[in-house]
Write a structure and sequence with these properties.
alpha+beta; six-stranded antiparallel β-sheet; 23 helices; 27 strands
């Protein structure tokens, strides 16, 4: 029996040994298969799960104003973390105290607190301890030099996360025109303003950084160096002039606030080149404040009203249908076409006046009669002029979202007997403020119609990549004879017409007022409101700039005519650019409206500055543009650093003024 039991035990042992041998062979085969046959697959799988290439977005190029001020820039933003297990025990213990002291000096927390947090992170094996967020590049470099961190990623445990943020150094001014490029909630790419239109130049090439997965699904860089370094985008030099932009923005804002208007815009354009030197678009928020949310100047196409009368006047003179001396009867301020009344703003009309005078006084009855009588048998002749002026087409500006103009054509299905007379005084047509301005600028530019430009150069550091010079749409919209006559009439609009309140002997302007009813289909119901405008150029004799101001839905209790609402904004801009008249008691010659505007700025001036022109005034807290104007008139040379209000002046208040002396202003 014992022998049988021993045999059974031996069989069992052999069986187990054989099974183990077979298993060993199978395991060996599997290992060989994993190592050599499927090795590449598993190694790739392991690497994909633990090592990954992350995209490092390239810095977008900067956007500059024409005078070199930064309008938009990409700023690197850093987050610093600490892998508490990376340093050796010797390095950690040796550098812990000086590291805590350095962090305390930089961030202000007690050194003991940092000491405890770092030691706790080591004890808990925290491989992703947060040190600091939102660091600038300077702070990041300083932090990298601290004890322990200066040993690098492997020995010092430092983990760096970088991203870029877009900053606008001049704040909200011209925000919509400067624009942005981003992905909306639908996943669609939004391209707004200069940033959107020139994204292909501003966007550089993204880089790549290899990162390794650590605990809790967190990733840290494998090396301090990137796999592929990002390449920055090109810089954009815009046509915007910060000084003129500041004037235009605040002049528009003040008027919107006073008239409690819904929204408005202003554009200032260089006559010869078409460079847009300033553009402001302000809409009223429900809290009563005004913000740049929509580019009304470029995108809002509506009936322009009386500013459109310029197109009719040019057509009449160019076709030699009439001359400016032709006399028309205003018929008591009311005439009827197809049972619809055309009225003058002045009750009772203007009697019998010339065509030129009718334009100066913005008489609807006079202008409509002139257009209708001369083109009623062939309206296509009139419309052909409007088309030749380019009023039926978009300007083709670089910014996205340009509004579509509307000029009724005689062959259109909706053309009616009212179309021609209504077009005569700016109804039944539709244009954006920028499109209207282009026509006025063409007159100022002796008939040459140029495309408005927002960018003048693309650069890589100091190397020019591309330049945007003047783009001519139409070299001559009409004869020089017609241009000369129209210029004279528009100058008289300001001297003795509807814009006479704006006249000043100190500087010349020319233009046209406009007051349009919007949503007038319902009569004087709740939907109807007024749009007030003024378009023109300055100086009148040698135009350097053209400008349009449009203000929608002003409070009718305070006023709604273009000369009262929009005209003062135009005058303020011309005044500040070409005369720099300071807002003191020296401007007694200016009319009441401008005096009221100046009261805001007069409050900044030191009392001594009003009576003593031979001493340095205290200008801290004053807006930069007014400070430059005041000091310039005192014979000082002014150097300005920054934008905004004066926070520091190099010459002390009360010092004697010496001619051609230099004063440096630091603005906030």
């Amino acid at each position: 029996m014992a022998i049988d039991n021993d045999k059974k035990m031996s069989y069992r042992m052999y069986l187990v040994a054989f099974a183990i041998f077979v298993m060993a062979i199978l395991i060996s085969i599997k290992l060989v298969n994993i190592q050599w046959v499927e090795g590449d697959y598993y190694r790739k799988l392991a690497k994909d799960r633990t090592v990954k290439n992350f995209t490092i977005p390239a810095n977008r190029g900067n956007v500059y104003s024409s005078d070199g001020s930064l309008l938009a820039t990409s700023i690197p933003n850093y987050t610093m973390r600490f892998d508490a297990l990376a340093p050796s025990a010797e390095n950690f213990n040796k550098n812990l105290e000086p590291l805590a002291d350095s962090l305390s000096v930089m961030f202000g927390k007690p050194s003991e607190e940092y000491y405890s947090e770092l030691k706790r992170a080591r004890a808990k094996k925290n491989r992703y301890f947060l040190v600091a967020r939102n660091l600038s590049y300077t702070q990041y470099m300083r932090l990298k030099s601290f004890p322990l961190f200066n040993l690098g990623a492997f020995k010092g445990g430092i983990i760096t996360e970088q991203k870029t943020i877009r900053e606008h150094p001049i704040g909200k001014i011209a925000e919509r025109t400067i624009g942005y490029e981003r992905i909306d909630h639908k996943g669609e790419n939004l391209e707004v303003g200069i940033e959107g239109a020139f994204a292909k130049y501003l966007n550089g090439k993204d880089g790549r950084q290899l990162m390794q997965k650590i605990a809790k699904n967190q990733w840290k860089p494998i090396s301090d160096n990137n796999e592929v370094e990002p390449i920055d985008g090109y810089d954009i030099v815009s046509t915007i002039d910060v000084y003129i932009q500041d004037i235009a923005h605040h002049a528009l804002l003040k008027q919107l606030e006073y008239y409690e208007a819904d929204h408005g815009c202003v554009v200032v354009m260089e006559t010869k080149t078409g460079y847009v030197k300033a553009i402001s678009n302000l809409g009223r928020h429900e809290n009563g404040s005004y913000y740049e949310t929509i580019n009304y100047a470029v995108g809002e196409s509506q009936e322009p009203g009386s500013t459109f009368k310029l197109a009719g006047l040019i057509s009449l003179l160019e076709d030699k249908k009439v001359d400016t001396s032709k006399v028309y009867d205003s018929h008591g301020g009311e005439i009827i076409y197809s049972n619809r009344k055309v009225r003058d703003s002045k009750k009772g009309g203007y009697g019998k006046i010339s065509l030129a005078r009718g334009f100066e006084l913005s008489s609807n009855t006079v202008i409509v009669q002139a257009v209708y009588e001369n083109y009623k048998d062939n309206p296509q002749e009139f419309v052909d002029h409007l088309n030749a002026f380019g009023l039926n087409r978009k300007l083709g500006v670089s910014l996205k979202g340009e509004g579509k103009p509307k000029i009724p054509q005689p062959q259109d299905k909706n053309w009616s007997k009212l179309s021609l007379p209504w077009m005569g005084f700016g109804y039944g047509v539709s244009m954006t403020p920028l499109q209207t301005l282009a026509l006025y600028n063409a007159v100022a530019n002796n008939g040459e119609l140029v495309r408005p430009l927002f960018v003048q150069e693309i650069k890589e550091w100091d190397r020019t990549i591309k330049k945007f010079d003047k783009e001519v749409i139409n070299p001559k919209i009409c004869s020089q004879e017609t241009i000369n006559k129209v210029k004279a009439v528009m100058e008289n609009v300001v001297k003795k017409g509807t814009g006479s309140k704006l006249y000043s002997p100190n500087f010349s302007m020319a233009g046209k007022t406009g007051t349009a009813q919007v949503n007038y289909g319902g009569g004087k119901g709740e939907g109807m409101y007024y749009s007030s405008s003024f378009a023109g150029y300055f100086p009148a004799d040698n135009p350097q700039y053209s400008c349009i101001v449009v203000i929608h839905r002003p409070s009718v209790n305070k006023g709604y005519y273009g000369a009262d609402v929009s005209g003062p904004v135009f005058k303020r801009i011309a005044q500040k650019i070409f005369t720099d008249v300071p807002s003191t008691n020296k401007v007694k010659k200016l009319d009441k409206t401008i005096k009221q505007q100046e009261q805001l700025y007069a409050s900044y001036y030191d009392k001594e500055a009003k009576v003593k022109d031979n001493v340095i005034p205290n200008i801290v807290g004053m807006s930069g543009m007014d400070a430059v104007a005041l000091l310039g008139n005192m014979g000082l040379k002014v150097q300005v650093i920054g934008v905004g209000k004066v926070k520091k002046q190099s010459l002390k208040p009360g010092e004697i003024v010496f001619k051609n002396q230099t004063i440096i202003l630091e603005l906030s």
